[in-house]
Amino acid sequence: MDKIVVLDFGSQYSHLICRRIREFSVYAELVPFDISYEELQKHNPKGIIFSGGPSSVYNSDAPVPENKIFEMNLPLLGICYGHQLIVNKYGGKVKRANKEYGSSLLTIDNDKDLLSGVGESVRAWMSHGDEAEEIPPGFQIIGHTESAKAAAIASHEKSVYGIQFHPEVVHTEQGTEILKNFVLKVCGAKQDWTMEGFIDSAVEKISKIDGNVLCGVSGGIDSTVAALLIHKAIGDRLKCVFVNNGLLRLNEETEIETMFKENFNVNFTSINAVDKFLGKLKGVEDPEKKRMIVGEEFINVFTEFAEKNGPFKWLAQGTLYPDVIESGVSKGPADVIKSHHNVGGLPDWLNLEILEPLRELYKDEVRMIAKILKVPEKLFMRHPFPGPGLAVRIIGEVTPTKLQIAKVASKIVEDELVEAGLYGKVWQAYAAVGDDRAVGVVGDERRYGNIVMIRVVDSIDAMTADWTRLPHGILEKMSNRITNEIEDVTWVTYTISSKPPATIEPQ
């Protein structure tokens, strides 16, 4: 199988480069920027991409790849910081410039190879504070913006390219086409990466493990697919445990148990731990502390179950690529955005090894696998739900009142999207609630109640997201129902921040 290797220099978009390339059926893998020449050779890549990153190439501690990597005579594409590395390495000059962040108009000066078929100009996403002052000998400028005269450069002879913008984010028009030009035309990679192939490979690997596996299932697509893959590999050596932590969607605990027992031939146990979780969260307002408490309590419940029903050797989780990168435990020097309860950091006293069969995949890839494994469409088209549940959609302390508001208001939002035929067309939709309150008028009485925030976004893989432009009539119906049907709510707002700079979940 042909492979493109992406060297991670710390950009939050590094994994997204791999995801975009996989969209056109070519396997892409992220590796640390300081990978050795010998180790990189073992990957046998068809081409190499340098990601972006927060560093400046002229700093003494700037991350740089091993020199021999430049001598592999493989096609090379540098993105943002990677672009500046190429400029610096091949004899050009990088200087500090006015920070350019956001959308810029990229004018195409040469449409050969990399920028073929892109058009005369496109909107491109910039995020940098340095730029190429002088391009290296033997290179030419193939694209520029108003602020960056060398926004795209190329040495066609060496098959080395540098671009100052990020083609991997959805904000760059024709970004996937640019990556496709590099991977397919310049590198000549074959399009032979499929989800059917992934299933076969994953099942083969999992079948070789020894011991029993304990899998925490939430009813979401990630943990369900992880469980089905493991069950396909080891059968009855897998035991699935569902923990009702009290932080689920409205009536979800009943729906999940029914779904598993009616659709999947796996060993399934449901545990009611509502009082434990809500008790530990009482009085806690800090979002990171809430995440940690939920994560640790899950481990406590699983450990207790394992001691009574074991022995187990493995704890399986539905961890995905975005979980890994956002937790700062990717292989490159990325900053931590937020922690995830199902990524690494297992306590020393837990005597279980971790099994994460989906760790290399994105959400839409998992949905493809779900379809192949004949998971009911209602499940695999369901919107993502955070591991810590409503604890991250309730801003501040988790109280019974706010918990009920979040459950009922989110159900109203989802129901109205279904009614309008829009549920399957958006990535995620929910209602959040915090401690802010506002005065409303109900009948002839003034009421002081909570403010509910509706959040609906469009995305492909959760690494970037744009707020959904819902028709005003639908928003009006949602607002009217929420304020009429939930006694403690007086105002409803609609969140219009995209990711970046915001995250999809409020906490």
TrEMBL record:
Its EC number is 6.3.5.2. ATP binds at S218, G219, G220, I221, D222, S223, T224. Pathway: Purine metabolism; GMP biosynthesis; GMP from XMP (L-Gln route): step 1/1. It comes from the Archaea. InterPro entries: Class_I_gatase-like, GATASE, GMP_synth_C, GMP_synth_GATase, GMP_synthase, GMPS_ATP_PPase_dom, NAD/GMP_synthase, Rossmann-like_a/b/a_fold. It catalyses: XMP + L-glutamine + ATP + H2O = GMP + L-glutamate + AMP + diphosphate + 2 H(+). Gene3D superfamilies: 3.30.300.10, 3.40.50.880, HUPs (3.40.50.620). SUPFAM superfamilies: Adenine nucleotide alpha hydrolases-like, Class I glutamine amidotransferase-like. Keywords: Aminotransferase, ATP-binding, Glutamine amidotransferase, GMP biosynthesis, Ligase, Nucleotide-binding, Purine biosynthesis, Transferase. Residues 193-382 form the GMPS ATP-PPase domain. One of its GO terms (cellular component) is cytosol. GO terms for molecular function: ATP binding; GMP synthase activity; transaminase activity. It holds the Pfam family NAD_synthase. The active site is at C80, H166, E168. Signal peptide: none annotated. PANTHER family: GMP SYNTHASE [GLUTAMINE-HYDROLYZING] (PTHR11922:SF2), GMP SYNTHASE-RELATED (PTHR11922). NCBIfam families: guaA_Cterm, guaA_Nterm, PRK00074.1. Catalyzes the synthesis of GMP from XMP. This is GMP synthase [glutamine-hydrolyzing]. The lineage of its organism: Archaea, Nitrososphaerota, Nitrososphaeria, Nitrosopumilales, Nitrosopumilaceae. The gene is guaA.
